[in-house]
Design a protein that fits this description.
The protein is about 50% helix and about 15% strand. With about 270 residues, the chain is α/β, with parallel strands linked by helices.
């Protein structure tokens, strides 16, 4: 890859993206520029050859792909700051929640090569589910952005009007899955396991369940059918969970999170 990557905002997300690019050999460390006010927190990247700085302008000037990994309220200000250093051929990717492509394009004086990406926290281990959208696919830019984020997990292209929904399902979804694992672990303690053992069994089981769906391209119910036998313990447990509102509670939780993010979007 010949792209030079500038990451404006070297917090947890920005640093994780840089780590993923290095580990996957997407580019050489010296092709990555990353900024943060507290530059000492980027020493681990600087020691690996990444260009670390507090100067957003220098970073933007050196990147052909510019990733905005800052807080949503900072995006417009950052865009205005780096505007003189964004070339016509540069691709700009925002990972900030709730900031539209139109807003970024306007702040960059009509720059047309703007995309949004929504990773989740599993990006830290290269297992993110990243949703990507763009107003236009200029010269195959969408594929370029997708290949970049495939270094830290899986990607899927969606419409921009689904980005809030993607945030709920993919980003908030990590917390839902964690809460499920926690609850199952607590059940495991009730039936005799120590907490660390219960958590390990629960976490690996969830990982295995997800991999079954992904690798077999199957539906959850078809995999459930394989472990539910007549009068068995699995179907008894599943039925009790459903009687207690398990599926409906999850669905309501997803909808509530979506309503909240939509409300915040309309009232910012």
């Amino acid at each position: 890859m010949g792209n030079k990557i500038s990451i404006i905002g070297g917090g947890n997300l920005g640093s994780a993206i840089a780590d993923g690019l290095i580990v996957s050999n997407y580019c050489q460390p010296d092709s990555i520029y990353i900024t943060r006010r507290k530059i000492k927190l980027l020493e681990h990247l600087g020691d690996r050859g990444v260009n670390v700085s507090t100067d957003n302008k220098i970073a933007a000037q050196n990147g052909s792909i510019i990733i905005l990994a800052v807080k949503p309220y900072q995006v417009v200000q950052i865009c205005e700051e780096i505007l003189p250093h964004v070339a016509k051929e540069d691709i700009v990717v925002s990972v900030a929640t709730g900031v539209s492509i139109e807003t970024i394009t306007d702040a960059l004086n009509g720059h047309s090569r703007v995309y949004r990406a929504m990773p989740n926290t599993a990006i830290a281990i290269g297992e993110s589910m990243t949703c990507i959208c763009g107003a236009n696919d200029n010269n195959g830019d969408l594929e370029v952005v997708s290949e970049l984020f495939k270094t830290v997990g899986e990607t899927i292209a969606i419409r921009e009007d689904l980005m809030n929904a993607a945030t709920v399902l993919g980003a908030c979804g990590i917390a839902y899955a964690m809460r499920f694992i926690r609850a199952v672990s607590q059940g495991g303690i009730e039936i005799g396991f120590h907490s660390d053992v219960a958590q390990k069994i629960a976490a690996q089981t969830v990982k295995g369940a997800a991999d079954l769906l992904i690798r077999h391209d199957s539906h959850p119910e078809s995999e459930i059918d394989k472990v539910t036998t007549p009068r068995g313990c699995t179907i008894a447990g599943l039925n009790e969970m459903e009687h207690q509102g398990f599926s409906s509670a999850l669905i309501k939780g997803v909808l509530t999170s979506f309503e909240k993010i939509e409300f915040l979007d309309k009232n910012k």
